[in-house]
UniProtKB/TrEMBL annotation, chain B:
The lineage of its organism: Bacteria, Deltaproteobacteria, Bradymonadales, Bradymonadaceae, Bradymonas. SUPFAM superfamilies: Helical backbone' metal receptor (SSF53807). It holds the Pfam family Peripla_BP_2. One of its GO terms (biological process) is cellular response to iron ion. Residues 40-58 have a biased composition (Polar residues). This is Fe/B12 periplasmic-binding domain-containing protein. Coiled coil: none annotated. Residues 85-343 form the Fe/B12 periplasmic-binding domain. Keywords: Signal. Residues 40-68 are annotated as: Disordered. InterPro entries: ABC_Transporter_SBP, ABC_transptr_periplasmic_BD, Vit_B12_bind_prot.
Length: 341, 353
């Protein structure tokens, strides 16, 4: 992979993602359309309310969607390599579920005692994500190797999600219905940024960017690991160390995303597979492209969630859209991976 | 745990549509997440679908109330003449019974009941949707009272089987609220008291509506917000909408096809209400009214909103705004003051006016 090819791939992806962002900025639940915005910006004739819609409603939402999408998609790509499982996705593996459980536990039980909401929830989500990962690694370690061991991991993830949901449902039943309603939306993953401070949003963006840079830093080692642990070791890669670090970094990214957006599934599955088809398996290209494509994908999904369903005069949690797109694709990938090759 | 939005009043001011989609998506996702994604599918069925209601064990055909509207009633064939052990399945029903002066006959309530304060100490039979039949039976009630939103087919069938008399009355509108109070009063042998309460409510409400009408200002464009996360507001067909219009406001969501639409902030910015009545119940419940209002910080970010600019965001952390019971008169007074600009907590706003 030459440097020019790398740069051109990323440039193309960036242009596409920026296109998504412009589309995301151009439409919404109000009548303010792209044409009006562009005309208004060029002639400086947007009225204050339109400016507020653009700056306080759409820009934060698009930015947040980009951050969450980038975090989920690049983590998904790394999980797929490190766990050597094409169906790995932060949601399916239970990492998101663990983060959600941690976040919810903190929201319902801890916030009263500790008060530190802004940093408490992501910290708790991070602990939850790590807990889920520890479980997954434990299962992986103790499962006899074999063709089916891949599916043991997935089943563990699914079961863990169910378990986490059960505890979350229990918590839901003991809190006020107002809070229960919030938890319900949290579980479906919403990118609503109402009430979120700009500094929080920028903090998320910075944390996720650092994580993605960290993952790119390990890209060569991940390439080696994708050949197999033994080959990687022969190439001088400390497999255990690379796994530990990349999984840790991915989990931080997922925890940050999940802490503020809730459970958004399948982004980490659909996007890496699509990107791999287009740019190949080299992680030096794959990870940045996944991050950019994930951002674009979630911006568009969120646009659908917040505008198309205006027919019902309602907005949807974006997790509904990603699941509607992602679940059929998951079945397809499952079918493909089960096929004798 | 005392207050809440989604299950506290029988017509559950929750986003109906979104619940449906959440339920749908949840089924797609794990199938296990949202066992509690309750209210509206059953509630909707019970309240808006007369056919399904009559197929439920409704032994009593919808009866004409002395008022103008037809009450939707689901009741057991025989009702006791002088019930003494009553279980209520909704906070507003509890309030009605207390207003009738029969509060001491209530032996158990839902976990959302909070008014009058002493009901908090009564045994709980679960929520409005997740009624625990065994807990109901344990109280040996001679009558179970609820609203139609709570009368899901299963519960009625179970009560039928257990031979517990029951009476569910739909109370989604003001008219239905009057009718429900009368119906409960008649059943408890307190028909006269009910008529009295009803006449009193009616005259107070008429007075408010009259003064709202006669005011010479144009109707302010108002939005009644039920929650921030998600942003839910009152649309036509909701009890809040009816109250808001009676109190002299024009609902900015008058065109909404959904009684409890879920909005994003963009929609609110584009509707640009002149007054916002924020009835979000604080997460810790309405008791802590002295705590700093979460509403101020929430709305402050959107300073281009007329309501924010003119200091016309009114925060009322009190279930009277969404509970159809005699106290709704207080709710209406609160709304009237907020809409007509002389609410206590908008003293500053008056200077602007």
């Amino acid at each position: 992979m030459s440097a020019t090819r790398l740069l051109s791939t990323i440039a193309i992806a960036l242009v596409a993602a920026l296109g998504c962002a412009l589309v995301g900025l151009g439409w919404g639940s109000s009548d303010l359309g792209a044409g009006q915005i562009i005309r208004g910006l060029l002639t400086n004739s947007l009225d204050p309310m339109q400016q507020t819609i653009l700056l306080n409603a759409r820009v934060p939402r698009v930015l947040f969607a980009a951050v969450v999408g980038a975090a989920l998609a690049s983590s998904g790509a790394v999980f797929q390599t490190v766990l050597r499982n094409p169906l790995a996705d932060p949601y399916i593996l239970g990492v998101s579920g663990g983060a959600a459980l941690g976040g919810t536990l903190f929201l319902t039980l801890g916030s009263a005692a500790l008060g530190g909401f802004v940093f408490g929830v992501p910290a708790a989500a991070f602990v939850g994500a790590l807990g889920a990962l520890a479980l997954i690694f434990g299962v992986e370690r103790w499962t006899p190797a074999g063709r089916t061991s891949n599916y043991v991991l997935l089943l563990t993830g699914v079961v863990f999600n169910a378990f986490a949901s059960a505890i979350i449902m229990f918590l839901k039943s003991i809190v006020s219905a107002q809070k229960a309603q919030e938890l319900l939306f949290y579980l479906m993953g919403s990118l609503a940024v109402e009430g979120m401070a700009l500094s929080t949003l920028l903090g998320c963006a910075a944390a996720v960017t650092l994580c993605i840079l960290g993952l790119i830093w390990f890209a060569r080692d991940l390439n080696a690991i994708s050949l197999g642990d033994d080959d990687a070791a022969t190439l001088g890669v400390d497999v255990a160390r690379v796994r530990w670090w990349t999984v840790l970094i991915s989990s931080i990214a997922v925890a940050v995303a999940v802490a503020f957006s809730g459970l958004i599934g399948f982004v980490g599955l659909v996007v890496p597979h699509g990107v791999r088809l287009l740019v190949g398996p080299d992680h030096r290209v794959l990870i940045p492209t996944c991050a950019i494509a994930g951002a674009g994908f979630l911006i568009l999904s969120d646009l659908i969630a917040r505008s198309v369903f205006g027919l019902f005069s309602s907005t949807l949690p974006v997790g509904v859209i990603t699941a509607l797109i992602g679940a059929p694709l998951f079945v397809f990938f499952l079918w493909r991976s089960m096929r004798p090759t | 745990m005392n207050s809440n939005l989604s299950e506290q009043s029988m017509r559950a001011p929750t986003p109906g549509k979104s619940h449906f989609f959440i339920a749908l998506a949840a089924a797609l996702l794990t199938g296990s997440i949202l066992a509690g994604c309750e209210p509206t599918s059953t509630a909707k069925q019970a309240s808006s679908n007369g056919a399904s209601e009559s197929t439920q064990a409704s032994k009593v055909a919808p009866k004409d109330d002395p008022g103008t509207t037809t009450l939707r009633v689901v009741a057991s064939q025989t009702l006791p003449t002088n019930p003494q052990r009553v279980v209520t399945l909704a906070p507003n029903v509890t309030e009605v019974i207390f207003a009738l002066g029969a509060g001491e006959r209530i032996v158990a309530v839902t976990r959302y009941d909070d008014y009058p304060a002493k009901v908090k100490k009564l045994p709980k039979i679960g929520g409005i949707i997740d009624v625990d039949l065994e807990a109901v039976l344990a109280q040996k009630p001679d009558l179970v009272l609820g609203t139609s939103a709570g009368s899901d087919g299963n519960l009625v069938a179970k009560l039928e089987k257990s031979k517990i008399p029951y009476l569910f009355v739909q109370m989604n509108t003001l008219e239905e609220t009057y009718g429900g109070i009368q119906k409960f009063g008649d059943t408890l042998g307190l028909g006269e008291k009910a008529a009295e309460i009803r006449a009193d409510m009616q005259s107070k409400i008429d007075a408010i509506a009259e003064s709202a009408k006669s005011a010479d200002q144009p109707k302010p464009r108002v939005m009644l917000v039920y929650g921030h996360d998600p942003l839910v507001a009152a649309g036509p067909g909701s009890f809040g909408h009816e109250m808001l219009e009676l109190a002299g406001g024009a609902n900015v969501l008058a065109d909404s096809p959904n009684p409890y639409p879920v909005l994003d902030i963009e929609k609110i910015l584009s509707l640009n209400p002149e007054r916002i009545i924020d009835a979000t119940i604080a997460p810790d419940g309405p008791d802590k009214v002295d705590a700093p209002s979460p509403t101020g910080a929430f709305w402050a970010k959107y300073s281009t909103l007329s309501a924010v600019k003119n200091n016309q965001v009114h925060y009322f952390d009190d279930p009277v705004l969404h509970r159809p019971a005699p106290r709704l008169v207080e709710g209406l007074e609160i709304m009237h003051k907020a809409i007509r600009g002389d609410a206590q907590n908008s003293a500053d706003a008056l200077k602007d006016d």
